Amino acid sequence: MATANKRNTKRQDYKKMHEGIELDVEVFDNSIKHEPVITTNTSGGASLEPEDTQMSHNKETHENGDLATSKEEDEEMRLIEQAIEAADAEKQEILKTRKKEELRAQLRRKQLEVKQLKEEDCHKIRKVLIVGDSIVKHLPHIEGDTNLSFRGATIGKLQHLFDQKVISLTNVEFLILHVGTNNISNNWSVRDMQSILTNLLAIVRKKSK
After folding, report:
1. Of 83, 105, 124, which residue sits at a domain end?
2. I want to staple 153 with a disulfide (CB 3.0 to 4.6 A). Which of 43, 115, 125, 133 is the partner?
3. Is the pTM of this model over 0.70?
């Protein structure tokens, strides 16, 4: 009887011991899952935070860092775009200034060409020959003009002078004839004067070639 009680007691002790081991293991596992993390607070002391709280804090810090980085990149892009716009505006201003200088130079060249043409016209001497009776000698002298006056000259006389090359048309650009006054004073008819004047002009054209 005493032996049976002793065995029962041993069994109960073994059971308690086994249950105690399992309890210790379970408590140990739970302590691992909820093991506090030691951090330093702002006052410099140590504090304990659960691991999931630290992970949440780290995630929030990371997100804040990403947000700050994104804002910095946006600001940098904005500054670059402003710099590009400023450079483009400066380029357009330079091109406009160059265009103005080119136009001014072109205007100066055109003005110089016009001035030279005007000077050429002013200095160009036109060779003009004036032939006629005594009235021609009273004409004022003009540079480049030559007056040949023949006292009492009629249309027929001038025709003879041109035909005999007494009057030369070499290097003459313009010819002015003043004749017919003496024919009228000699009672020539208009019809006769017209006929002989036509012959005079024909000779002049022939000699001027």
Report:
1. 124
2. 133
3. no
- pLDDT tens track for 83-135: 999 999 999 999 999 999 999 999 999 998 998 887 776 666 678 899 999 99
Residues 137 and 203 in one domain: yes
CA–CA dist 154, 161 (Å, integer): 11
Handedness of CA 83, 89, 92, 97 (dihedral sign): negative
Asked if residue 148 is part of any domain, the answer here is yes
User: What tokens were used for 96?
Assistant: 């406009």
Q: Name 199's Cβ contacts closer than 8 Å, sequence gap at least 6.
A: 159
| Structural domain for 151, as ranges | 128-208
Q: Which residue has the higher pLDDT, 58 or 5?
A: 58
Strand-pair category, 145-149 with 128-132: parallel
- Report the C-alpha gap between 111 and 204 in whole angstroms: 42
Domains identified in the chain, total number: 2
Which pLDDT value is given to residue 34?
Answer: 45
**Is position 39 within any domain?**
no
pLDDT of residue 107: 92
**H helix intervals, 34-154:** 51-123
The verdict on 79 and 147 lying in the same domain is no
- 129-159 residue pLDDT tens: 999 999 988 888 877 788 899 999 999 999 9
Which one of 124, 150, 181 terminates a domain?
124
Whether residue 201 is contained in a domain is answered as yes
